[in-house]
Amino acid sequence: MIGRRTKFHFVMCFALLCCVGSIATNAWAQNGGDLRFCVRSEPKTFDPLLVDDDSSLSIRYLTGGVLARVNRHTQELEPELAESWKVSPDSKQITFKLRHGVHFSDGTPFAADDVAFTVQRLMDPALHSNTGDAFRSGSGAVTTKVIAPDQIAITFPAPVVGLDRMFDEVAIMSAHSAKKEGAVLGPFMVAEYKPGSSVRLERNPYYWKKDAQGRRLPYLDSIHIDIQGNRDVEMLRFKRGEIDLINVIDTDYFDRLASSSPQLVHDAGPSLDSDFMWFNEVGNAPIPEYKRAWFGSVNFRRAISEAINRDDLARIVYNGHAQPAVGPISPANKFWFNSHLKAEAHNPQGALERLKADGFHMQNGTLVDKSGNQVEFSIVTNAGSKARERMSVLIQEDLGKIGIKVNLVPLDFPSLIERITHTFNYEAAMLGFRNIDLDPNGQMNIWLSSASNHAWNPEQKSPATAWEAEIDKLMREQASTADLKKRKQAFDRVQEIVYEQAPLIYLINQNALSAVSTSVAGASPGILYPQTFWNAERLTLNGTTTAKR
Amino acid sequence: MKAARVLACVIVVAVCALSLCANWLAPGGYAKQFREAPGAPPSREHLLGTDEVGRDRFARVLYGTRISLLLAPAAALVSTALAALVGGLAGYLGGIWLKVARAFTDLFLSLPWLFLLITVRALLPLNVSPLSSVLITFLILGLLGWAASARVLSTSANTLRNSDFVLQARASGAHGPRLFLIHVLPNLKPVLYAQFWISIPVFILSEANLGVLGLGVAEPLPSWGSLLRELEGMLSFREEPWRLVPLGLLIVVLTSFQLLLEKEEVTA
Q1: A397 touches chain B (CB under 8 A)
Q2: Tens digit of pLDDT for each residue in A171-208?
Q3: Residues A507, A522 share a domain
Q4: Which one, A132, A170, A463, B220, has the greatest CB density within 10 A?
Q5: Which residue of chain A is at minimal alpha-carbon distance from B39?
Q6: Which positions of chain A have pLDDT values less than 70?
Q7: Taking CB atoms and an 8 Å cutoff, what residues of chain A touch B239?
Q8: Do the beta carbons of residue A317 and residue A387 sit within 8 Å?
Q9: How far apart are CA A356 and CA A149, in angstroms?
Q10: Which residue in A317, A377, A396, A407 has the most chain B C-beta atoms within 10 A of its own C-beta, making it the best mutation to test that interface?
Q11: Are A200 and A304 part of one and the same domain?
C-alpha cells in the first residue's frame, strides 16, 4: 500500500521531472548544438555571386539571405527579405518591397541600396558570374532604382522569364560592410575555414526570422561541414554517429543502411536528376559516313530507345529507387512535366520493325544496315560512376538481343568532356543531368540548336533539322512571355518533340535518397537541393548528441 | 617445407585446370544476365551468387582467372625480359652504359604515366572488341612495367660483373655474349624470378585501375582486376563474404607461386 507521504513524493518527483523537461526543451530549442555533415569537395569560393560548385552552393544556401525563396517542399516561391514583389507585364522589371529591421551578421542594417549593390555586381560582365548569366536576356545594362530605403525597382534590357524565381539564387551582399561577403543575411555565417579539412558555420546572431513562439532562429549553434571526397568514409562516419546527415546517398549505401536502420534513410521519390544517352550527330565528327546516317535517323534512335529495358535499369541498377524517364522534365517537377507522355516501353520487336523501315536486317544473328555494314557502336561514359557503368552493361545486353554489338568505354571525366565537346570523336555517350532549376529556362543551353550544351550537335549556325528549328522557336516563345499557360503549352510541345525524335534517349530519373540521423529533429528530406537541410534554420539536435560533442 | 610446396603446386594446377574447364563448369557463361536475381547470395544455381547485374559470379571468377592467370604472367614476362635486357646488360657492361641505362630508367620512372596513358587511350579507337582490349591492356602493362625491375637488375648485374667467378671466367677466355649468357644471366635468376612474381599482382591491380582511363579489360569480359573492383564500397567483411572469393583466390594463387619460387631459388 502506498502511503500519503510516498504519494506526495511521487507527485513532487513528477512535477520536478516536468519542470526539468520543460527547461530542457527550451534549452534544446535555443541551444540546438552542432550539426555535422560532409561535402564532397573543397568550396571554390565564399563569394555568393560566384558560386559554381556544390560545396559552395551548400554554404551559400546556409549563409546567404535571398529576397524570395522557392520552398523546397511545396515548390512555391515565398517571401524572404522581400515582403512582396511585382513583376511588370513585359517581364522586364521587378519591384521589391523589403522587410524592415533586418541586419547583416555584422550588425549593418539591410536596405534597398544593398540590393542595388548586389544586382549591379551580379550583372557586372567582369565578374563572370554564372548566377548573373541566367539574368542576361538581351544586350544592354541592368538598371536599379532605389525608390525608398525599403523599395527597389530592377529593370532588365529584355524580358526575363521566371524573373522572380531566379532571385532564389541571389544572396544579397552588404554595400557598406567592411566584411564584404563575410557579412551575410542568412541563418548562419562562416566562422572558420580550414582548407582541405572543414568549414564551420556559426549562428547569425542578427538573423531576422523567428519561430511561432517568437524565438529567434536558427535553433542550431553551429554547423560543421567536413570536406570528404570519399563516400565510403562518409558512410562509415555516418554509421558511427560522427556526422548527422548525408544529403545525397548512393543506392547501394541506402539499401545497406535501410536493412540495418530503416529509420535513418529517406526516399523522397523521383528527383529532378536524369540519366540519358545520345548519338553523335555532329556533321564533321570523325566517324564513318554510314554510322552518321544511322545516328541521324529517327527510326534508329527510337529503335534503340525501345530496345532498352528501362524498368530493369531502375530495378537492377537503382534497386527500385528510380523511375523510367520520360523526357527532359522529371515527373517530380509538378508544373512543367508533360503528363500526357509516358516512358518508352521495352519493345524489342517494335525496335526491329522500326529498323526494318530503314533497311536494317538480321544476318546470322547480327543486325546489318542496307549496305551490309554490321551495326556496332561504342558508348562512352564517365569511369567511376558505378550506376552508369552498370546501366551500360544492361544496355549492351538489351541491344545485343536485337543484333547490335555495343562496346563500352568508360573514360576519365576530362577525356570524356574533351571528346563530347571538342573533338567529337565518339559515337554514343551516356551522362546524367543534375537539375536544380524547376523552370525550363534553365535548359535553354541544352535545347537551342546554337547552344554549346546541345549535346548531339552543338553550336549549330542554323538548325540542322526542322524539328530542331521548331524547338528553337518554342523555347524562344516560352522565354519571351510571362503568360504561364502559354509557356507551359510551348514547353509541353518541346517535350513531345524530344520524345518523338529522341535526340537524347532518356533512361531513368533517380529517386532523391538521403540519410538523416535520428538525433536531428525537424528534418523533412525532399527532392530539391539541398534535400536534407533546406530548412536548416529549424533543425535541432537532441540533448544527448549535443552533450556527446 | 616440401609439403607446403606440394600443396602450392596442387593449388596452382587445380586453379589453372578449373579455369580452363570454365566452359564445362559454368556453361551459362560469364556474360549472361540473370536479371531476376541481381546481387543474389550463393545458391545451387549460382555457387558464388550473382553480381550487381545478375551475372553468375562463379562463372566470372573462372573466366576472370583464366584471363588474368594467362595474361598477367605474360605481361610480367615481357616486362621482366625488357628489364633483363636493359638493366642486366647495362649492369654487366658497366661504365657509361650503366650510367646511361640508369638515367634512362630514372627518366622513364619519372614520366607522368597517367597523362601518357590518357594520350594512349586517345590514340586507340573506341570500337575495340573486349578480347582486343585484354591484349592491348596487358601489352601496355608489359611494355611500361620494366623500369623499376631494370633498376634492381642493373645493380645486381653490376655486382656480379666484379665477382670472383666472373673474373675467373674472363681469365679463362670467356667474353661478350657467352660470358653474359652463361655466367651472369643464370646468377641473376633469383632476382629475375622475384621481379617476375612481384610484377604479376601489380599488373592485375594496375589492370583494374586502367579501367578508369578506358584501357582496362572491357565489359562484359571479367578479369581479377574487374572482380576486385567489385569490392569497392564494401564496408564490412561480414556482409556478403562470398564477394571476397576473388581476393582470396588472388592471395592463395600468388602465395602458391611464391612457395614454388622459393624452390626455384634454392635450385638456382
Answers
A1: yes
A2: 999 999 988 889 999 999 999 999 999 999 999 999 99
A3: no
A4: A170
A5: A316
A6: 1-31, 543-549
A7: 256
A8: yes
A9: 70
A10: A407
A11: no
Which pLDDT score, from 0 to 100, does residue A133 have?
A: 82
Q: Are A505 and A305 in contact (CB under 8 A)?
A: yes
Local structure of A119: helix, strand or coil: helix
Question: Smallest Cβ distance to B126: which of A384, A397, A407?
Answer: A407
Quote the CA–CA distance of B14 and B10 in Å, as a whole number: 6
Domain B2-267 sits in CATH 1.20.1260.10: no
User: What integer pLDDT is reported at residue A32 of this predicted model?
Assistant: 73
List the single residue in B38, B130, B233 with the smallest CB-CB distance to A316: B38
Tell whether A315 and A226 lie within a shared domain.
no
In a domain, residue A283? The reply is yes
What pLDDT is attached to residue A23?
39
Sign of CA dihedral B117, B122, B125, B130: positive
- CB proximity under 8 Å: A 195-254 to B: 231-232, 235-236, 239, 250, 252-253
Q: What is the pLDDT of residues B198-216, one digit of tens each?
A: 888 788 878 777 766 667 7
Element (H, E) at A511: strand A504-516
Joined together, the cell numbers standing for residue A484 give 504561364
d(CA A461, CA A458): 9
Mutation target vs B (from A393, A401, A427; most B CBs, 10 A cutoff) = A393
Q: What is the pLDDT of residue A190?
A: 96
Residue A544: inside a domain, yes or no? Answer: yes
CB pairs under 8 A between A and B: 81
The pLDDT tens digits of the residues spanning A311-351 come to 999 999 999 999 999 999 999 998 999 999 999 999 999 99
For residue A466, give its domain range.
270-511
Does A380 contact B220 at a Cβ distance shorter than 8 Å?
Answer: no
Q: How far apart are CA A34 and CA A202, in angstroms?
A: 9
pLDDT over 70, % of chain B: 94
Model confidence at B150, in pLDDT bands (50, 70, 90)? very high
For residue A271, give the 3-state DSSP assignment.
strand
* Cβ-defined contact of B127 to A410 (cutoff 8 Å): no
Q: Is residue A122 part of a domain?
A: yes
% of chain B beyond a pLDDT of 90: 32
